[in-house]
Amino acid sequence: MQSRATAAAAPRASAASSFAELPATASHGPLRIEYRWVDEHANAQADDPPIAVFLHEGLGSIAMWRDWPQTLCERLGMRGLVYSRPGYGLSTPRAPRDKWPVDFLTAQARDILPALLDALDVDLRQRQRMWVIGHSDGASIALLYAALFPDALAGAVVMAPHVFVEDISVQSIAQTKQLYETTDLRAKLARYHADVDSAFYGWNDVWLDPEFRRWSIVEALAPIRRPLLAIQGHDDNYGTMAQVDTIAAQVPHAQLVKLDACGHSPHRDAPAALNDAIAAFVRAHR
């Protein structure tokens, strides 16, 4: 079947990006999703190597991953799929007056990711061999996907996940808003997003919404059956070890890795230790 994704001419932030058109549903209008395949160094011995899907953080995009997905895919012998969620990178921006609902992460796992996989003709057989790798908000989406579609993945790796809201998270996000509005942070982020205010305020506004303080996906985690690796840095200023410890309590087969000298972004703060941990975990479950 011919893919319904359409290639794009060299966009500003990501020259190798392509775009997939997702139809409107009850939860969203038509969407244009920026994506990229990372497969140049996929295992040459495998005719159909497994796919690793990368889910970025709350202010992330394809470009902000830099070369880490490529490095990890080479290590794992997998193809990689990276994409910018709606509101980020070169994907459909959030309308200025739109405010994301409290359950916006659930909608990403339930609706957007499956629709993108459909658009790229990733069938059930491929999904059953697929690893979902998420960071921060993307890690929460990975957990929700693994719970909602327990038979449509091989396993999940979550880095600095959020499963409930902690004071430290809200305080750091409030500080980030101040930096965005008073320093050059906005200009720096604008390198990675076509509509930087769409990306920043979509994420910041929902996290600082008083209603969001009650957000929790703890009770939603029990259906996760596939292998699960949860990774947290000891120096994370957006979350504590309570996040991964709670995951372990809800998903007894989950394996935890707690990294020293590591903040909120293990792939930037401790890439060697992170890649070793992921490679060992995936190898043990393949």
Automatic annotation (TrEMBL):
GO terms for molecular function: hydrolase activity. Signal peptide: none annotated. Keywords: Hydrolase. InterPro entries: AB_hydrolase_1 (IPR000073), AB_hydrolase_fold (IPR029058), AB_hydrolase_sf (IPR050266). It comes from the Bacteria. The keyword Hydrolase applies. The keyword Transport does not apply. It holds the Pfam family Abhydrolase_6. SUPFAM superfamilies: alpha/beta-Hydrolases. Residues 53-277 form the AB hydrolase-1 domain. This is Alpha/beta hydrolase.
